[in-house]
Amino acid sequence: MTPPIRLIIGLGNPGPEYETTRHNAGFWLADHLADDLKASYTLEKGFSAWVAKARFEGDAVMVAKPTTFMNRSGQAAGALMRFYKLAPEQVLVLHDELDLLPGNAKLKQGGGHAGHNGLRDIQAAFSSPDFWRLRLGIGHPRTLGVAQQVAAFVLSPPRRDELQEIVAAIDRCRAIVPALLRGEYQQATSQLHEANRG
């Protein structure tokens, strides 16, 4: 029996210059989830994160956004996991995904980091890949016909049509979070994957 999600970590880069960039899709979703859970963020310097504490059906749940840059995301994730004595299986990481087109989102547990620096750092901090990931498609410059290197692409804002697709995917992700907080992973997965377009 896999325990329900108790800590949700959105990935992104801090600071206004990164706010609208593709790499911050995890932050965008985290902000919506905090609203959905009627929780507000407070800066917790000891955890190097903004943390929104909520209750869901009587249980404590947290949504966090690291204040470090993406490649140091494990600092906040590791500190929160250890302090609250959570297992990696109780953590959900929200992140942008180059391998999925804008408008697509996928839920999975474990696996590699596919070169994503935020995931790589969290995996190292947890000494385990067994945390859950909610992957928000942003597309790849090659598939989208954009003449940009990947590093520049993820640090640029999405085009308007892509943004509409990403926002639609974020809404579908929000819809499955209650199931994840109840530990209903099978239901959440099929609900999300049925909602994906194409």
TrEMBL record:
Keywords: Cytoplasm, Hydrolase, RNA-binding, tRNA-binding
Active site feature: H23 (proton acceptor)
Coiled coil: none
Residues bound to tRNA: Y18, F69, N71, N117
Residue(s) at site: Discriminates between blocked and unblocked aminoacyl-tRNA: N13
Site features described as Stabilizes the basic form of H active site to accept a proton, chain residue numbers: D96
The protein's Enzyme Commission number: 3.1.1.29
InterPro entries in the record: Pept_tRNA_hydro, Pept_tRNA_hydro_CS, Pept_tRNA_hydro_sf
GO-annotated biological processes: protein quality control for misfolded or incompletely synthesized proteins; rescue of stalled ribosome
Keyword Hydrolase: yes
The keyword DNA-binding is annotated on this UniProt entry: no
Recorded catalytic activity of this chain's protein: an N-acyl-L-alpha-aminoacyl-tRNA + H2O = an N-acyl-L-amino acid + a tRNA + H(+)
Enzyme class: hydrolase
GO molecular function, a single term: peptidyl-tRNA hydrolase activity
Subcellular location(s) per record: Cytoplasm
Main location per the UniProt record: cytoplasm
Gene Ontology, cellular component aspect: cytoplasm
Domain of life: Bacteria
Cited HAMAP family: Pept_tRNA_hydro_bact (MF_00083)
NCBIfam families listed in its UniProt record: pth
Cited function: Catalyzes the release of premature peptidyl moieties from peptidyl-tRNA molecules trapped in stalled 50S ribosomal subunits, and thus maintains levels of free tRNAs and 50S ribosomes. Hydrolyzes ribosome-free peptidyl-tRNAs (with 1 or more amino acids incorporated), which drop off the ribosome during protein synthesis, or as a result of ribosome stalling.
Family listed: Belongs to the PTH family.
Subunit organization: Monomer.
Protein name: Peptidyl-tRNA hydrolase
